[in-house]
Amino acid sequence: MALIGDLSIQFSQMFLVLLLAPLLTGFVRQVKARLLRRRGPPLLQPYRDLIRLCRKEAVIAHSASWLFRFVPYLVFAATWVAAALIPTFAAGLLFSWSADLIAIIALLGAARFFLALAGMDVGTSFGGLGSSREAMFATLAEPAMIMIVFSLALVAGSTQLSTVAAFMTSPAVGLRVSLGLALIALIIVAIAENGRIPVDNPATHLELTMVHEAMVLEYSGRHLALLELASSLKLLLYVSLIACIFTPWGIAHVGKGFSLHAIGLVAYVGKLAVAGMLLALFETTIAKMRVFRVPDFVGVAFMLGFLAVLLRFVSGSL
Amino acid sequence: MKGLAFDVAHLLAGGLVLVSFMQLYQTRLYALLNVFAVQAVLLSLSVAWQAWVQDAPHLYITAAIAFLFKALIIPIAMHRIIARLGIERDVENVVGIGPTMLAGLALVALSIVVMLRIAEQADPLAREDLAFALSVVLLGLLMMVVRRNAVSMVVGFMSLENGLILAAAGAKGMPLVVEISVAFSVLVAFTVIGVFLFRIRERFDTIDSGALDRFQGDRQ
User: Fold this and answer.
1) Predicted TM-score (pTM) above 0.90
2) Which domain holds residue B70?
3) What ranges do the domains of chain A cover?
4) Which chain B residues are closer than 8 Å to A317 by Cβ?
Protein backbone atom coordinates (compact mmCIF):
# COMPACT_ATOMS: atom_id res chain seq x y z
CA MET A 1 0.00 0.00 0.00
CA ALA A 2 2.85 2.34 0.91
CA LEU A 3 4.46 1.46 -2.39
CA ILE A 4 1.36 2.50 -4.28
CA GLY A 5 1.27 5.81 -2.42
CA ASP A 6 4.96 6.46 -3.14
CA LEU A 7 4.49 5.56 -6.79
CA SER A 8 1.47 7.81 -7.16
CA ILE A 9 3.38 10.77 -5.71
CA GLN A 10 6.37 10.02 -7.92
CA PHE A 11 4.23 9.87 -11.06
CA SER A 12 2.23 12.94 -10.13
CA GLN A 13 5.55 14.77 -9.71
CA MET A 14 6.76 13.55 -13.11
CA PHE A 15 3.63 14.76 -14.86
CA LEU A 16 3.60 17.96 -12.88
CA VAL A 17 7.05 18.96 -14.14
CA LEU A 18 5.98 18.07 -17.67
CA LEU A 19 2.90 20.25 -17.38
CA LEU A 20 4.60 23.16 -15.68
CA ALA A 21 7.66 23.35 -17.96
CA PRO A 22 6.02 25.20 -20.90
CA LEU A 23 4.18 27.41 -18.42
CA LEU A 24 7.49 28.53 -16.88
CA THR A 25 8.88 29.31 -20.33
CA GLY A 26 5.73 31.26 -21.18
CA PHE A 27 5.86 33.08 -17.87
CA VAL A 28 9.47 34.18 -18.38
CA ARG A 29 8.58 35.42 -21.88
CA GLN A 30 5.56 37.28 -20.54
CA VAL A 31 7.51 38.99 -17.75
CA LYS A 32 10.26 39.91 -20.19
CA ALA A 33 7.74 41.41 -22.59
CA ARG A 34 6.12 43.39 -19.80
CA LEU A 35 9.49 44.72 -18.67
CA LEU A 36 10.08 45.91 -22.22
CA ARG A 37 6.58 47.49 -22.21
CA ARG A 38 5.28 45.09 -24.81
CA ARG A 39 2.18 43.00 -24.33
CA GLY A 40 3.89 39.78 -25.21
CA PRO A 41 2.37 36.43 -26.14
CA PRO A 42 -0.26 34.97 -23.80
CA LEU A 43 0.88 32.78 -20.96
CA LEU A 44 -0.35 29.59 -22.61
CA GLN A 45 1.31 30.24 -25.97
CA PRO A 46 4.05 27.57 -25.52
CA TYR A 47 1.34 24.91 -25.12
CA ARG A 48 -0.37 26.08 -28.30
CA ASP A 49 2.94 26.03 -30.14
CA LEU A 50 3.60 22.49 -29.00
CA ILE A 51 0.14 21.27 -30.01
CA ARG A 52 0.41 22.91 -33.40
CA LEU A 53 3.86 21.47 -34.00
CA CYS A 54 2.58 18.01 -33.10
CA ARG A 55 -0.14 18.28 -35.76
CA LYS A 56 2.30 19.28 -38.46
CA GLU A 57 4.19 16.96 -40.74
CA ALA A 58 7.78 16.22 -39.75
CA VAL A 59 10.05 17.07 -42.66
CA ILE A 60 13.34 15.25 -42.68
CA ALA A 61 16.31 16.09 -44.86
CA HIS A 62 17.41 13.53 -47.47
CA SER A 63 20.88 13.32 -45.99
CA ALA A 64 19.60 12.58 -42.47
CA SER A 65 20.46 9.22 -40.95
CA TRP A 66 18.41 7.15 -38.48
CA LEU A 67 20.12 9.03 -35.64
CA PHE A 68 18.40 12.25 -36.66
CA ARG A 69 14.98 10.70 -36.07
CA PHE A 70 15.86 9.05 -32.77
CA VAL A 71 17.59 11.97 -31.11
CA PRO A 72 14.47 14.00 -30.16
CA TYR A 73 13.05 11.02 -28.27
CA LEU A 74 16.39 10.29 -26.57
CA VAL A 75 16.91 13.91 -25.55
CA PHE A 76 13.38 14.23 -24.24
CA ALA A 77 13.52 10.95 -22.33
CA ALA A 78 16.88 11.72 -20.70
CA THR A 79 15.77 15.20 -19.68
CA TRP A 80 12.47 13.96 -18.33
CA VAL A 81 14.09 11.22 -16.25
CA ALA A 82 16.59 13.75 -14.89
CA ALA A 83 13.73 16.11 -14.01
CA ALA A 84 11.86 13.28 -12.28
CA LEU A 85 14.85 12.68 -10.00
CA ILE A 86 14.78 16.17 -8.50
CA PRO A 87 12.60 16.77 -5.44
CA THR A 88 10.13 19.48 -6.42
CA PHE A 89 7.31 19.60 -3.88
CA ALA A 90 8.12 16.36 -2.07
CA ALA A 91 11.49 14.89 -1.14
CA GLY A 92 12.43 11.27 -0.57
CA LEU A 93 10.58 10.06 -3.65
CA LEU A 94 10.75 6.50 -4.87
CA PHE A 95 12.98 7.14 -7.88
CA SER A 96 15.26 9.60 -6.18
CA TRP A 97 16.98 6.82 -4.21
CA SER A 98 18.12 5.17 -7.42
CA ALA A 99 20.19 8.10 -8.67
CA ASP A 100 21.97 11.09 -7.22
CA LEU A 101 23.11 14.48 -8.48
CA ILE A 102 25.99 13.01 -10.48
CA ALA A 103 23.57 10.74 -12.35
CA ILE A 104 21.41 13.77 -13.17
CA ILE A 105 24.44 15.56 -14.63
CA ALA A 106 25.31 12.44 -16.61
CA LEU A 107 21.77 12.22 -18.02
CA LEU A 108 21.88 15.86 -19.11
CA GLY A 109 25.35 15.31 -20.58
CA ALA A 110 24.07 12.34 -22.59
CA ALA A 111 21.15 14.42 -23.88
CA ARG A 112 23.52 17.16 -24.95
CA PHE A 113 25.86 14.71 -26.64
CA PHE A 114 23.08 13.29 -28.80
CA LEU A 115 21.73 16.71 -29.62
CA ALA A 116 25.18 17.81 -30.78
CA LEU A 117 25.45 14.66 -32.93
CA ALA A 118 22.06 15.40 -34.47
CA GLY A 119 23.13 18.96 -35.19
CA MET A 120 26.00 17.66 -37.27
CA ASP A 121 24.05 14.80 -38.84
CA VAL A 122 22.40 16.62 -41.73
CA GLY A 123 25.61 18.35 -42.71
CA THR A 124 24.47 21.96 -42.89
CA SER A 125 26.91 24.57 -41.73
CA PHE A 126 24.61 26.03 -39.07
CA GLY A 127 24.12 22.71 -37.33
CA GLY A 128 27.84 22.04 -37.18
CA LEU A 129 28.48 25.54 -35.88
CA GLY A 130 25.88 25.14 -33.13
CA SER A 131 27.22 21.73 -32.17
CA SER A 132 30.80 22.90 -31.91
CA ARG A 133 29.79 25.86 -29.75
CA GLU A 134 27.61 23.68 -27.56
CA ALA A 135 30.52 21.30 -27.08
CA MET A 136 32.81 24.21 -26.20
CA PHE A 137 30.42 25.52 -23.54
CA ALA A 138 29.86 22.02 -22.22
CA THR A 139 33.56 21.36 -21.69
CA LEU A 140 33.64 24.46 -19.51
CA ALA A 141 30.31 24.11 -17.73
CA GLU A 142 30.60 20.47 -16.76
CA PRO A 143 33.81 20.74 -14.70
CA ALA A 144 32.22 23.69 -12.94
CA MET A 145 29.10 21.62 -12.25
CA ILE A 146 31.20 18.76 -10.88
CA MET A 147 33.01 21.20 -8.58
CA ILE A 148 29.66 22.49 -7.33
CA VAL A 149 28.57 18.92 -6.65
CA PHE A 150 31.81 18.27 -4.76
CA SER A 151 31.37 21.30 -2.55
CA LEU A 152 27.72 20.42 -1.84
CA ALA A 153 28.66 16.85 -1.09
CA LEU A 154 31.42 17.99 1.28
CA VAL A 155 29.04 20.31 3.12
CA ALA A 156 26.00 18.05 3.26
CA GLY A 157 27.82 14.72 3.35
CA SER A 158 25.85 13.27 0.46
CA THR A 159 25.18 13.69 -3.24
CA GLN A 160 21.62 12.47 -2.75
CA LEU A 161 19.32 15.41 -3.36
CA SER A 162 16.72 14.44 -0.77
CA THR A 163 19.44 14.16 1.88
CA VAL A 164 20.95 17.47 0.81
CA ALA A 165 17.55 19.17 1.03
CA ALA A 166 16.95 17.68 4.48
CA PHE A 167 20.40 18.86 5.59
CA MET A 168 19.79 22.37 4.29
CA THR A 169 16.60 22.75 6.35
CA SER A 170 18.35 21.54 9.51
CA PRO A 171 20.08 24.08 11.77
CA ALA A 172 23.42 22.30 11.20
CA VAL A 173 24.01 24.36 8.06
CA GLY A 174 25.21 27.55 9.73
CA LEU A 175 26.72 30.39 7.79
CA ARG A 176 28.87 28.94 5.05
CA VAL A 177 30.74 30.89 2.43
CA SER A 178 31.13 27.68 0.39
CA LEU A 179 27.39 27.46 -0.10
CA GLY A 180 27.18 31.06 -1.26
CA LEU A 181 29.94 30.49 -3.80
CA ALA A 182 28.30 27.26 -4.94
CA LEU A 183 24.98 29.07 -5.41
CA ILE A 184 26.50 31.76 -7.64
CA ALA A 185 28.42 29.13 -9.59
CA LEU A 186 25.27 27.03 -10.03
CA ILE A 187 23.33 30.04 -11.31
CA ILE A 188 26.05 30.77 -13.87
CA VAL A 189 26.11 27.14 -14.98
CA ALA A 190 22.31 27.10 -15.23
CA ILE A 191 22.34 30.21 -17.41
CA ALA A 192 25.02 28.74 -19.66
CA GLU A 193 23.38 25.32 -19.90
CA ASN A 194 19.96 26.69 -20.75
CA GLY A 195 21.33 29.14 -23.29
CA ARG A 196 19.82 32.16 -21.57
CA ILE A 197 20.84 35.66 -22.51
CA PRO A 198 24.44 36.46 -21.72
CA VAL A 199 25.43 33.17 -23.34
CA ASP A 200 22.82 32.54 -26.02
CA ASN A 201 19.58 34.25 -26.97
CA PRO A 202 16.62 31.84 -26.71
CA ALA A 203 14.27 34.14 -28.63
CA THR A 204 15.97 34.17 -32.03
CA HIS A 205 16.52 31.98 -35.04
CA LEU A 206 18.30 34.62 -37.04
CA GLU A 207 21.60 35.27 -35.36
CA LEU A 208 25.01 34.04 -36.36
CA THR A 209 25.80 33.55 -32.69
CA MET A 210 22.90 31.22 -31.89
CA VAL A 211 23.79 27.93 -30.29
CA HIS A 212 20.79 25.84 -29.32
CA GLU A 213 18.58 27.12 -32.13
CA ALA A 214 21.32 26.38 -34.66
CA MET A 215 21.40 22.75 -33.62
CA VAL A 216 17.64 22.25 -33.91
CA LEU A 217 17.33 24.28 -37.09
CA GLU A 218 16.68 21.22 -39.27
CA TYR A 219 13.94 19.81 -37.08
CA SER A 220 10.24 20.26 -37.68
CA GLY A 221 6.87 18.87 -36.63
CA ARG A 222 6.68 16.53 -33.67
CA HIS A 223 10.47 16.23 -33.46
CA LEU A 224 10.78 19.96 -32.92
CA ALA A 225 7.93 19.86 -30.40
CA LEU A 226 9.77 17.23 -28.37
CA LEU A 227 13.02 19.21 -28.46
CA GLU A 228 11.25 22.42 -27.44
CA LEU A 229 9.55 20.61 -24.59
CA ALA A 230 12.89 19.11 -23.55
CA SER A 231 14.52 22.52 -23.44
CA SER A 232 11.65 23.93 -21.34
CA LEU A 233 12.01 20.91 -19.06
CA LYS A 234 15.71 21.61 -18.73
CA LEU A 235 15.02 25.17 -17.60
CA LEU A 236 12.49 23.91 -15.07
CA LEU A 237 14.96 21.25 -13.96
CA TYR A 238 17.68 23.77 -13.18
CA VAL A 239 15.27 26.09 -11.38
CA SER A 240 13.99 23.15 -9.33
CA LEU A 241 17.55 22.06 -8.61
CA ILE A 242 18.52 25.47 -7.28
CA ALA A 243 15.25 25.74 -5.33
CA CYS A 244 15.63 22.27 -3.84
CA ILE A 245 19.23 22.78 -2.74
CA PHE A 246 19.28 26.38 -1.61
CA THR A 247 15.68 27.14 -0.67
CA PRO A 248 14.29 23.79 0.45
CA TRP A 249 11.59 25.34 2.63
CA GLY A 250 8.19 23.80 2.34
CA ILE A 251 9.31 20.57 0.67
CA ALA A 252 7.22 17.76 2.10
CA HIS A 253 8.60 14.34 2.89
CA VAL A 254 6.89 11.30 1.52
CA GLY A 255 4.25 9.82 3.80
CA LYS A 256 3.59 13.01 5.77
CA GLY A 257 -0.01 13.44 4.74
CA PHE A 258 -1.89 15.28 2.05
CA SER A 259 -1.93 18.78 3.56
CA LEU A 260 1.88 18.98 3.73
CA HIS A 261 2.07 17.96 0.08
CA ALA A 262 -0.39 20.71 -0.79
CA ILE A 263 1.75 23.26 1.08
CA GLY A 264 4.83 21.92 -0.71
CA LEU A 265 3.08 22.30 -4.05
CA VAL A 266 2.10 25.91 -3.37
CA ALA A 267 5.63 26.69 -2.16
CA TYR A 268 7.10 25.08 -5.27
CA VAL A 269 4.91 27.07 -7.64
CA GLY A 270 5.78 30.22 -5.69
CA LYS A 271 9.51 29.49 -6.00
CA LEU A 272 9.13 28.91 -9.74
CA ALA A 273 7.33 32.23 -10.14
CA VAL A 274 10.01 34.10 -8.18
CA ALA A 275 12.79 32.41 -10.14
CA GLY A 276 11.06 33.17 -13.44
CA MET A 277 10.71 36.83 -12.55
CA LEU A 278 14.35 37.08 -11.46
CA LEU A 279 15.48 35.38 -14.66
CA ALA A 280 13.43 37.76 -16.80
CA LEU A 281 14.75 40.76 -14.88
CA PHE A 282 18.33 39.54 -15.26
CA GLU A 283 17.88 38.93 -18.97
CA THR A 284 16.44 42.37 -19.67
CA THR A 285 19.20 44.17 -17.81
CA ILE A 286 22.13 42.45 -19.50
CA ALA A 287 23.41 42.27 -23.06
CA LYS A 288 24.43 39.14 -24.86
CA MET A 289 28.13 38.33 -24.76
CA ARG A 290 30.42 37.60 -27.63
CA VAL A 291 30.89 33.87 -28.04
CA PHE A 292 34.57 34.10 -27.19
CA ARG A 293 33.86 35.84 -23.91
CA VAL A 294 31.65 33.00 -22.73
CA PRO A 295 34.63 30.89 -21.60
CA ASP A 296 35.56 33.71 -19.19
CA PHE A 297 31.99 33.84 -17.88
CA VAL A 298 31.70 30.10 -17.35
CA GLY A 299 35.29 29.99 -16.10
CA VAL A 300 34.14 32.19 -13.23
CA ALA A 301 31.71 29.42 -12.28
CA PHE A 302 34.53 26.88 -12.28
CA MET A 303 36.69 29.19 -10.18
CA LEU A 304 33.88 29.76 -7.67
CA GLY A 305 33.16 26.05 -7.45
CA PHE A 306 36.82 25.26 -6.90
CA LEU A 307 37.15 28.00 -4.28
CA ALA A 308 34.06 26.65 -2.53
CA VAL A 309 35.70 23.23 -2.31
CA LEU A 310 38.96 24.72 -1.04
CA LEU A 311 37.25 26.88 1.58
CA ARG A 312 35.23 23.90 2.72
CA PHE A 313 38.47 21.99 3.19
CA VAL A 314 39.87 24.77 5.35
CA SER A 315 36.86 24.97 7.63
CA GLY A 316 36.45 21.19 7.63
CA SER A 317 40.00 20.34 8.64
CA LEU A 318 40.06 22.60 11.69
CA MET B 1 35.02 26.74 18.11
CA LYS B 2 32.53 25.75 15.43
CA GLY B 3 30.21 28.56 16.41
CA LEU B 4 29.12 31.76 14.78
CA ALA B 5 32.45 33.47 15.53
CA PHE B 6 34.29 31.02 13.33
CA ASP B 7 31.67 31.06 10.59
CA VAL B 8 31.67 34.85 10.26
CA ALA B 9 35.47 35.02 10.28
CA HIS B 10 35.52 32.30 7.63
CA LEU B 11 32.96 34.18 5.55
CA LEU B 12 34.86 37.47 5.66
CA ALA B 13 38.29 35.96 5.02
CA GLY B 14 36.88 33.78 2.24
CA GLY B 15 35.29 36.88 0.74
CA LEU B 16 38.69 38.56 0.80
CA VAL B 17 40.21 35.73 -1.24
CA LEU B 18 37.29 35.88 -3.65
CA VAL B 19 37.75 39.62 -4.16
CA SER B 20 41.45 39.00 -4.82
CA PHE B 21 40.36 36.73 -7.65
CA MET B 22 38.02 39.41 -8.94
CA GLN B 23 41.00 41.76 -9.16
CA LEU B 24 42.82 39.29 -11.37
CA TYR B 25 40.33 39.53 -14.21
CA GLN B 26 39.36 43.21 -14.15
CA THR B 27 40.66 44.81 -17.30
CA ARG B 28 39.46 48.37 -16.69
CA LEU B 29 41.40 50.50 -14.27
CA TYR B 30 38.45 52.12 -12.51
CA ALA B 31 36.75 48.76 -12.03
CA LEU B 32 40.01 47.44 -10.61
CA LEU B 33 40.16 50.30 -8.12
CA ASN B 34 36.56 49.73 -7.07
CA VAL B 35 37.28 46.07 -6.46
CA PHE B 36 40.32 47.09 -4.45
CA ALA B 37 38.15 49.37 -2.31
CA VAL B 38 35.69 46.52 -1.74
CA GLN B 39 38.60 44.36 -0.63
CA ALA B 40 39.68 47.02 1.85
CA VAL B 41 36.16 47.25 3.27
CA LEU B 42 36.08 43.48 3.69
CA LEU B 43 39.50 43.59 5.32
CA SER B 44 38.44 46.20 7.85
CA LEU B 45 35.27 44.21 8.63
CA SER B 46 37.35 41.09 9.07
CA VAL B 47 39.81 42.84 11.39
CA ALA B 48 36.96 44.38 13.38
CA TRP B 49 35.43 40.93 13.77
CA GLN B 50 38.77 39.60 15.03
CA ALA B 51 38.88 42.49 17.50
CA TRP B 52 35.45 41.55 18.78
CA VAL B 53 36.26 37.84 18.99
CA GLN B 54 39.68 38.26 20.58
CA ASP B 55 38.44 41.10 22.79
CA ALA B 56 41.38 43.20 21.62
CA PRO B 57 40.30 46.85 21.35
CA HIS B 58 43.47 47.99 19.58
CA LEU B 59 42.44 45.93 16.55
CA TYR B 60 39.49 48.28 16.12
CA ILE B 61 42.05 51.02 15.46
CA THR B 62 43.71 48.80 12.85
CA ALA B 63 40.32 48.23 11.25
CA ALA B 64 39.59 51.95 11.24
CA ILE B 65 43.00 52.72 9.71
CA ALA B 66 42.50 50.04 7.06
CA PHE B 67 39.10 51.46 6.20
CA LEU B 68 40.24 55.08 6.10
CA PHE B 69 43.44 54.57 4.14
CA LYS B 70 42.70 51.58 1.94
CA ALA B 71 39.02 52.02 1.24
CA LEU B 72 38.87 55.81 1.00
CA ILE B 73 42.14 57.71 0.62
CA ILE B 74 44.13 55.43 -1.67
CA PRO B 75 41.31 54.57 -4.13
CA ILE B 76 40.30 58.24 -4.39
CA ALA B 77 43.90 59.32 -4.90
CA MET B 78 44.37 56.59 -7.52
CA HIS B 79 41.25 57.77 -9.33
CA ARG B 80 42.74 61.24 -9.51
CA ILE B 81 46.13 59.94 -10.66
CA ILE B 82 44.46 57.94 -13.42
CA ALA B 83 42.42 60.97 -14.44
CA ARG B 84 45.55 63.13 -14.55
CA LEU B 85 47.50 60.55 -16.52
CA GLY B 86 44.57 60.47 -18.92
CA ILE B 87 44.44 56.68 -19.07
CA GLU B 88 40.97 56.18 -17.60
CA ARG B 89 39.66 54.72 -20.82
CA ASP B 90 42.52 52.31 -21.32
CA VAL B 91 41.60 48.67 -21.47
CA GLU B 92 44.50 46.56 -20.44
CA ASN B 93 45.16 43.44 -22.50
CA VAL B 94 45.54 40.98 -19.77
CA VAL B 95 47.18 37.99 -21.36
CA GLY B 96 45.49 34.69 -20.64
CA ILE B 97 42.83 35.24 -17.99
CA GLY B 98 42.19 31.49 -17.90
CA PRO B 99 45.78 30.41 -17.12
CA THR B 100 46.08 33.26 -14.61
CA MET B 101 42.96 32.04 -12.83
CA LEU B 102 44.27 28.50 -12.77
CA ALA B 103 47.60 29.71 -11.40
CA GLY B 104 45.71 31.67 -8.74
CA LEU B 105 43.71 28.60 -7.76
CA ALA B 106 46.91 26.59 -7.51
CA LEU B 107 48.42 29.28 -5.27
CA VAL B 108 45.36 29.27 -2.99
CA ALA B 109 45.50 25.48 -2.75
CA LEU B 110 49.23 25.66 -2.01
CA SER B 111 48.86 28.24 0.74
CA ILE B 112 46.02 26.33 2.37
CA VAL B 113 47.95 23.08 2.33
CA VAL B 114 51.09 24.75 3.69
CA MET B 115 49.35 26.72 6.42
CA LEU B 116 47.18 23.89 7.65
CA ARG B 117 50.28 21.71 7.98
CA ILE B 118 52.70 24.05 9.69
CA ALA B 119 50.34 25.81 12.08
CA GLU B 120 48.74 22.72 13.52
CA GLN B 121 48.84 23.70 17.17
CA ALA B 122 47.50 27.20 16.63
CA ASP B 123 44.01 28.39 17.42
CA PRO B 124 41.61 27.42 14.54
CA LEU B 125 40.58 31.01 13.95
CA ALA B 126 44.20 32.14 13.59
CA ARG B 127 45.07 29.17 11.39
CA GLU B 128 42.26 29.82 9.01
CA ASP B 129 43.06 33.52 8.88
CA LEU B 130 46.71 32.73 8.19
CA ALA B 131 45.82 30.35 5.37
CA PHE B 132 43.64 32.97 3.68
CA ALA B 133 46.13 35.76 4.37
CA LEU B 134 48.89 33.80 2.63
CA SER B 135 46.59 33.25 -0.37
CA VAL B 136 45.79 36.96 -0.57
CA VAL B 137 49.53 37.76 -0.43
CA LEU B 138 50.33 35.25 -3.17
CA LEU B 139 47.46 36.47 -5.34
CA GLY B 140 48.75 40.03 -4.95
CA LEU B 141 52.18 38.87 -6.08
CA LEU B 142 50.61 37.04 -9.02
CA MET B 143 48.80 40.24 -9.97
CA MET B 144 52.09 42.14 -9.94
CA VAL B 145 53.67 39.49 -12.16
CA VAL B 146 50.97 39.18 -14.81
CA ARG B 147 50.06 42.84 -15.27
CA ARG B 148 52.02 45.22 -17.40
CA ASN B 149 50.29 48.46 -16.52
CA ALA B 150 52.08 50.14 -13.60
CA VAL B 151 48.80 51.20 -11.95
CA SER B 152 47.59 47.59 -11.83
CA MET B 153 50.91 46.56 -10.35
CA VAL B 154 50.45 49.13 -7.60
CA VAL B 155 47.00 47.73 -6.88
CA GLY B 156 48.54 44.26 -6.71
CA PHE B 157 51.07 45.55 -4.21
CA MET B 158 48.39 47.17 -2.08
CA SER B 159 46.27 44.03 -2.04
CA LEU B 160 49.36 42.04 -1.02
CA GLU B 161 49.63 44.37 1.94
CA ASN B 162 45.96 43.70 2.76
CA GLY B 163 46.93 40.06 3.17
CA LEU B 164 49.67 41.04 5.61
CA ILE B 165 47.22 43.02 7.75
CA LEU B 166 44.83 40.06 7.77
CA ALA B 167 47.64 37.80 9.00
CA ALA B 168 48.63 40.36 11.63
CA ALA B 169 45.05 40.58 12.88
CA GLY B 170 44.75 36.83 13.14
CA ALA B 171 47.96 36.42 15.15
CA LYS B 172 47.35 37.42 18.74
CA GLY B 173 49.76 39.77 20.43
CA MET B 174 50.81 41.86 17.46
CA PRO B 175 51.58 45.25 19.00
CA LEU B 176 49.58 48.20 17.79
CA VAL B 177 52.67 50.25 16.99
CA VAL B 178 53.74 47.70 14.39
CA GLU B 179 50.39 47.79 12.69
CA ILE B 180 50.25 51.57 12.63
CA SER B 181 53.77 51.81 11.25
CA VAL B 182 52.91 49.26 8.54
CA ALA B 183 49.86 51.29 7.61
CA PHE B 184 51.85 54.50 7.40
CA SER B 185 54.69 52.90 5.46
CA VAL B 186 52.13 51.80 2.89
CA LEU B 187 50.90 55.36 2.65
CA VAL B 188 54.48 56.57 2.18
CA ALA B 189 55.08 53.84 -0.41
CA PHE B 190 51.93 54.97 -2.15
CA THR B 191 53.14 58.56 -2.31
CA VAL B 192 56.50 57.46 -3.70
CA ILE B 193 54.76 55.24 -6.24
CA GLY B 194 52.51 58.12 -7.23
CA VAL B 195 55.53 60.29 -7.95
CA PHE B 196 57.16 57.43 -9.80
CA LEU B 197 54.16 56.88 -12.04
CA PHE B 198 54.43 60.45 -13.28
CA ARG B 199 58.21 60.16 -13.69
CA ILE B 200 57.90 56.94 -15.70
CA ARG B 201 55.31 58.55 -17.87
CA GLU B 202 57.39 61.69 -18.41
CA ARG B 203 60.34 59.60 -19.44
CA PHE B 204 58.76 56.89 -21.57
CA ASP B 205 55.36 58.39 -22.56
CA THR B 206 53.61 55.32 -21.22
CA ILE B 207 53.21 53.42 -17.99
CA ASP B 208 53.12 50.07 -19.69
CA SER B 209 56.05 48.20 -18.23
CA GLY B 210 56.44 46.29 -21.48
CA ALA B 211 57.91 49.48 -22.92
CA LEU B 212 60.65 49.43 -20.30
CA ASP B 213 62.13 46.27 -21.83
CA ARG B 214 63.51 48.30 -24.70
CA PHE B 215 65.63 50.36 -22.31
CA GLN B 216 67.43 47.51 -20.68
CA GLY B 217 70.44 47.86 -22.93
CA ASP B 218 72.21 44.81 -24.32
CA ARG B 219 70.86 41.57 -23.11
CA GLN B 220 73.07 38.67 -23.86
Assistant:
1) no
2) 4-216
3) 2-316
4) 116
